[in-house]
Design brief:
The protein is an alpha+beta fold. 41% of the residues lie in helices and 22% in strands. It is built from five helices and six strands; from the N terminus they run αααβββαβββα. It has a five-stranded mixed beta barrel with strand order 1-2-3-5-4. A hairpin with a 5-residue loop joins strand 2 and strand 3. The radius of gyration is 46 Å and the shape is globular.
């Protein structure tokens, strides 16, 4: 009986030892499993690092399968398309930056000239004489008449035919007057001279005129004051200049070069001056 007990205890001890061995072996399996996990995880970490390094060089935000050469070609295509789009928009008015080279101090408003003429007529104590002086004006072309061919009746050029171009000008000061361009000046401003690349004047053009002659004559006795007391003239002897700053009434595709986007240069005083005359004419014409 005791033997059986002892043997049974040994069996239990063997069982415990087996259990302990099983626990130990199970613990060894855990350690081994941890080691295997570490060994397995290490290559994966290296592979992930390689993937990250490969991702930086090869994979793009546009497409993961895109190659560097393919991406480079896409960038070149995009740059070409952007350049072509800019070139196309450069032909439109919004891409034309206004650039006017004149000083506001060199301009004389038509309203100021008319006031000076009225003042000279009313304040003169002696019989007034005809007054003329050179001026530069920025005005809108309200009407264009001609050019016509006329024959000189007297003087050294009597019997000779010359050209005459008549204009009616106005500006935002409210002044309106007539202008007569003679001889070669009339032909140049009308666009009839093939040697001059500038086009002919049209109604609605905002023009900068330099070295034109303004004149007012004394009021005739017994007559009412003229509504337009001044007149402008331009002839080759004066060497007048003409610049079309803006064309408010375009009729051809070539007129787009005379329609810069004035909004792009409103910080410049000359551009603001041109814009004010444009706005005045559009208001008068009901545009």
């Amino acid at each position: 009986m005791y033997e059986n007990v002892i043997f049974a205890e040994h069996r239990d001890g063997d069982d415990d030892t087996g259990a302990l061995a099983a626990d130990t072996s199970h613990g060894d399996e855990d350690v081994q499993a941890d080691g295997q996990t570490t060994i397995i995880t290490w290559p994966l970490t290296t592979q992930a690092t390689q993937d990250r390094s490969r991702t930086r060089g090869d994979i793009t935000f546009l497409r993961a399968s895109a190659s560097p050469s393919h991406l480079h070609s896409q960038m070149e295509t995009q740059e070409t398309q952007e350049t072509n789009s800019y070139d196309y928009s450069d032909a439109s008015s919004i891409a034309q930056f206004p650039a006017f080279h004149f000083s506001l101090h060199s301009l004389t408003p038509l309203g100021t000239l008319i006031e000076q003429a009225h003042a000279a007529r009313s304040s003169s104590r002696v019989p007034p004489r005809k007054t003329s002086l050179k001026v530069s004006v920025l005005a809108a072309v309200l009407e264009v008449d001609g050019p016509d061919t006329i024959r000189i009746k007297k003087g050294p050029d009597a019997g000779k035919e010359i050209s005459l171009l008549k204009l009616i000008l106005g500006d935002e000061s409210g002044g309106i007057c007539k202008l007569a361009a003679w001889r070669e000046t009339a032909e140049d401003w009308a666009g009839l001279n093939p040697d001059v690349p500038a086009p002919g004047l049209k109604k609605g053009d905002i023009v900068l005129l330099g070295n034109v002659l303004v004149a007012w004559e004394p009021e005739a006795a017994g007559t009412a004051a003229a509504s337009i007391p001044i007149s402008l003239s331009a002839s080759p002897q004066l060497k007048p200049t003409l610049e079309i700053c803006y064309r408010t009434l375009p009729t051809a595709l070539q007129d787009a070069r005379f329609r810069p986007d004035l909004r792009l240069g409103l910080s410049d005083a000359a551009v603001r001056k041109v814009a004010s005359v444009v706005a005045w004419f559009e208001g008068v014409a009901g545009l």
